[in-house]
Structures are given as C-alpha cells and as structure tokens.
Amino acid sequence: MRMRLERSLPLLGFLLCAVGTTAQQDEETEGGEFLVEISGTTVTITCPLEDDGIDWTFSRKGEVTEEKKLIFRDHDSSPVNLSCSLGSRQRELYLNARVCATCEELDALTVAGIIAADLLITLGLLILVYYFSKGRKGRASSSGDSRPRGQKMQRPPPVPNPDYEPIRKGQRELYAGLAPRAL
For residues 175 and 170, what is the distance between their CA atoms, to the nearest angstrom? Predict the structure, then answer.
C-alpha cells in the first residue's frame, strides 16, 4: 500500500501544478492585476483590462497615454484612488506609492554583488579570528587567577566510603548467616 502512495505522489504534484496554472490563466484572462512602475518621482500604472477604449478615473493630475497607461509625473507620495473601466468591467486601485527624487535604483546584479562581497568579508574575518585564536589555547589568561598554571596537579584518589568497605577475613562469619530468602 505504501509503495502505491509513493508512486502516486509525483502524479498528484503534477496535477496540482496543472490545476494551479489553469486557474492562474483564467484569472489573467479576466483581467489580472495592475502593473505599477516607479522611477524617481514618476509613477506609471497599466490597466489589466485588455481591450482598447479604457476610461480612467482618478482624483489627481495625471496623463493618460496609449489608453492602457496612466502616468503621474512629480508624484508627491500622497495616496490616490483610481480605476480603469471598459464597458461594464471595472478595476479599482488604491495607490499609496512612496517616491524619492534622490533615490538610486539598484538592479539585481548590483544587489547580488553587495551580498556576495558581504559574505566574503565575513568569511575572511572568520578565518582570521580562527587563525589567530588557534595559537592561544595553551596560554594563561589575565583573569586574575592566583594558582600557578603548570601541568595539572593529579587529584588524590577518592576517600573510600565506610558503608562499602570490603569484608575482612575476620568478619566473614558475621555475614555468613545471611542467605537469600525464598519467597
């Protein structure tokens, strides 16, 4: 029974992926999500509806280009309610985009380079600390310890417990009468 279950798991995973992609394609054909692009203080919004003749409704100064795109130049980071409609279909968006005039955009390669350099520097420091601390294992520390640090002194053997002393020759008769009792 378990073997059948193990064989059917890849098939189940494939079916779940196929159903998920089909549902995603259906959602995209109905009109997916708005595409919002931010560059400096310019915000460009693309309507998810596919046909021509899109009507935009917005509460700020903006310009419509190519009917699918709405551009806010010199956006001041204040929230905006907007919608695009085509016939009876309408999509609404609450835009709360933070923009910055002096911000720099970083591409994925630059971010990956910064992360890789950080990891290499951290690894280098780790190796340096390991290398320099390797030779300090046998040295005395300056912790105010007054005992001399030479070879470790051997401890004396533990004091024998009188309750567990071995039976001496003269005392064997005392314990000879103790035999295990039958139940």
Answer: 11
Cα separation, 12 vs 20, whole angstroms:
12
Q: Where are the beta strands (DSSP E) in 19-96?
A: 35-39, 42-46, 55-58, 63-65, 69-72, 80-86, 89-95
Residue 177 has what DSSP assignment? T
Closest residue by Cα to residue 82 from 71, 38, 105: 71
Per-residue pLDDT tens digits of the chain, which is 183 residues long: 555 656 666 665 666 666 555 544 444 445 578 889 888 888 888 888 877 778 888 877 766 676 688 888 888 888 888 888 888 888 888 888 888 888 877 889 999 999 999 999 999 999 999 998 887 765 555 555 555 555 667 887 777 777 776 666 766 666 666 666 665
Residues 6+ apart with CB under 8 A from 5: none
Half-sphere exposure (CA, 13 Å, Cβ side) for 138?
4
Q: Tokens for 106?
A: 């970083």
- Please name which of 68, 70, 73 lies closest in space to residue 81, comparing C-alpha atoms: 70
Q: What is the C-alpha separation between 80 and 82, in angstroms, rounded?
A: 6
Residue 171 and residue 183: Cα distance in Å, rounded?
A: 28
Taking the C-alpha atoms of residue 73 and residue 80, their distance in angstroms, rounded to an integer, is 13
Query: φ, ψ for residue 55 (rounded to 5)?
Result: -105, 130
